[in-house]
Structure formats: structure tokens, C-alpha cells
Amino acid sequence: MFLKALEIQGFKSFPDRTRITVGKGITAVVGPNGSGKSNISDAIRWVMGETSAKQLRGGGKMENVIFGGTQQRGAMGFASVSLVVDNTDRRIDVDNDEVTIGRKYYRSGDSEYSVNGQNVRLKDIYEMFLDTGLGRDGYSVIGQGRIAEIVGAKSNERREIFEEASGIAKYRYRKNEAERRLASAEENLVRLRDILGELEERVGPLERVSKKAKQYLELAERRKGLEVTLWVDTVQKARDTVREQQRKIEIAGADYARAGREIEAIDAETESTRAEIEHLITEADRCNAEIRAITEEIAGADSRIAVLENDIAHNDATIASLKEEIGQSGLGREAIAAEVRGHGEGIAACERQAAAYAARTGELEALLEELQKSLHLTMLFISHDLSVVRCMTDRAVVMYLGKIMEMGPTEHLFGAPAHPYTRNLIDAVPEPDPDCPPKESTMIGEPPSPMDIPGGCRFHPRCPYAKNVCRRAQPELTDLGGGHFAACHFPYACAGVPQTEAEQ
């Protein structure tokens, strides 16, 4: 056995990977002081398991063996040393002609040992070199100051050196290891005796438990036989149940077939119903078209009625003027009477035309009502004629400048209007009784432009009941009960309902 090569990287003064081939014979390393000669022997001791940084001249810290860097080169992160030993004589207990021992140490404190590339423990390295003359405690590697240490060593220390040299150190190591194991075995024996004593104390209770266990096994065997008998009986009952279920399945299959035939009949009836529904939908579309045409005709009739009413009012004014002139002058009565008769004929013609439009409107209203009832339609009716709205609708909505002023059931809204604007609209509807004079409007001025809507309540410039709050804040729709809503700070003020001091 002899040293063949040494490979160093990052260890002390060797930052680069350096391989030193030794071989048989004597190899000398020379150089001036500080060239790193001693670091070679330190590397050999370090790779063979030296754990004392002081022995390696590391200043007490193992990380000092890692190359610390210079001005031209940065520090290394690890130190690595590999030792190649010839083992052809099998001095080392490894089945290889060449053994490579490696050690790597990181600045984090982690350390790795390896033999022929396989990770091992430091203990394995130490046992491998026992009685070989190598190893961290061997006599073959003597560092600086070690000779003086050997000369001045005590007798027991010299004895260890001689034992290592004579090859009996491994027996001392094995003796110490055997004594340690023997002490551990004696401790285990004491523990076993204690456990045995505890177990002997438990023998009696365990015997009783054993008897109970035997009795349990006998009873369990009996239970097993009973369970088998019960299982056989259950299987027989299950077979009877299966036969009964099969019979029920056959009956259900017949019912299913009958239900299938009924479903086919229902499908046929459904198809007929679907065709009828499609016909009704077509009829509803036609009715909707008629409704739209009628609505347009009603709107045109409303316009014409308004024109006729205007003509009537103009003729009434003309008649009144003529009567006044007749009273003042008394002249031309015959001509005036003729003119009056002519205007009267025009008025009569207008009244006949208005009556015809009214009759037509009544017919259209009746038709719409009939369509709604027969087809269960929901209609949205938009009109200026409040008399038609009152006659035809269930609910009414009153708007002013793009905002809802009041809405609710038609009869409730016409019977007790809560908003002054609604009240004025209802009062403007002409009465059929000629002896009933028209009601005077309480609205002030003209409607404002939709491009310049007033702040607060948009009706307040024309409302005779407006207060300061009406000019500041816009009222929200308030539920007055029974689905009747009004956007007014003082609902029913137009009906003479007294106001509180806070409202005034």
C-alpha cells in the first residue's frame, strides 16, 4: 500500500485544482517559506478525518481551511481534497486495487466524505485506516512541531504511538467499542429484567383473559354457525322477494306499455292543441294589427274632434258677438238671423259629425274591451281623452314633462286625485250637461320648455299650492294606499286637506 496521488482544490493556498502524483519511493516537496509546502501535509491529514482546525493551523475555525481570496482573486465557497492510495495488497478492506478517499467542506458548515465516489461517515474513514499507518492519528504524517510533541509526550501517549506502529491499535479500538457495546447491553439487560418483572406480574390476569378468550372463540364459532343459518334463511327470503319483484316488474311492464299508448294519444292531442294555439297566435297577431289600426284611427278622430270643438267654440263666440251687435243696433236682423241660422246649421253638422266620431269611438272601445277579455291581453293605452281612459282602463298614469306625477286604480285616481295637475286635467273634461258650467283651471301660466325643466317639483311654477320645499326638492312617488301613488310634497292639497305648520 502506498500513496499514489493527491488532488487539492480550494484548500488553503490551493484555489485551483492541483494534482500531485507521488507513487513509490521518496518524493520531496521544496520551496521557500510561505509557498504552501505544509499545506500539502495538512491536506493529507484533513482528508483522512482531522477535525481539529488548530492541528491544521486554521486559527480555531474549520472554515479557515477554505481559500479566503486575494486582491486579484475572490474567495472559494468550498475546500476539496482527494487522496488516491494503491490497494493491490488489500491492506485496506476494500475490494479495489485503488482507493480514493475524498472530503469536501462548504462555508455553510456542511461536510462530505466519500470512498471511491460513495458517501461514507467519518467513522468509516477512521476504521478503514486502523493499523495501516495512515489516518489522522497515524505516525506516517508528521506535521510541523509534531516531532517535539512526540518527544515530550507522556507515557500513555507514546504507548498509543507504539500501538499504532505495531498494528494493535485496531484491537484497542475494537476493545473500547466492545466495552461500550457491553455496557449498553448490560443497560438493556437491566431494562429487560424490569420488563420481565412487569410481565410476570401480568401473567395471572393474562391467564384469566386467556380463558375468556377461549370462551369467546367457542361462542364466536357458535355465532358463526348461527349466522350461516340466518344467512341461508335470508337468501331463501331474498329469492322469494326476487320472484315477487319479477312478478311486479311484469305487471309494471304491462302498465308501462299501456301508459305508452296513452302518452301517444296525449301527444296526438297535444299536436292538435299546438296547431290550435298557433292558429290563436295568428289570430292574436291579426287582432293586434287591428288594434294598432284602431288606435291610429282613434288618434285621428281625437284630432278631428279637437278641430270641431274649436270650430264650435269659434261659432259660439261669433253668435254671441252677433247677438250683441243685434242688441245694440237693432239693424240687419234678418241678415244676421240668416247668418245665425247658417252657423247653427254648421254647428249642427259639427255636432252630428262629433256624434258619429263618438259612436265610432264607442265601437272601437267595445271592440278593444272584447279582445282584451277574450284573449286575456295586457294593453297599454296612450290617449289625451280622459273620458276614454276612465271608461276603458283599470289603471291610469299621469305624466308631466317626462315624469310620472300620479298613478293608481282608475276609479280611485278619478274619484280622489292627489296631485294638483291631475285635478286640473279632470276638471278640464267637458260635462255633457249644458246647464253645468265648465270648471275654471287653477293652473298658472304656460308649460315650461322640456329643454329647461324647473328645479324641485317640475310642476311648481304652475301649482297654486306650491311651497318653498316644492322649489327645492323633487318629490318621489309615495304610496298613498291601495296601489295609489303620487309625486307631491302635499298630496290631496287640491282637495282641501289641511296642512301642518311644518308643511307650510
Whole-number radius of gyration? 61 Å
What is the total tally of β strands?
10
Order of helices and strands: EEHEEEEHHHHHHHEEHHHEE
Q: Given the C-alpha coordinates, what overall shape results?
A: elongated
Written account of the structure:
The chain has 504 residues and is of the alpha+beta class. It folds into three domains: 174 residues, Rossmann fold (3-Layer(aba) Sandwich); 153 residues, no CATH class; 102 residues, no CATH class. The protein is built from eleven helices and ten strands. The strands form two sheets. It has a six-stranded antiparallel sheet with strand order 2-1-3-4-5-6. A four-stranded antiparallel sheet has the order 7-8-10-9. Helix 6 packs antiparallel against helix 7.
Features:
504 residues, Rossmann fold, six-stranded antiparallel beta sheet
How would you concisely characterize the structure shown here?
By secondary structure, this protein is α+β, with helices and mostly antiparallel strands. The protein contains eleven helices and ten strands. Helices cover 53% and strands 11% of the residues.
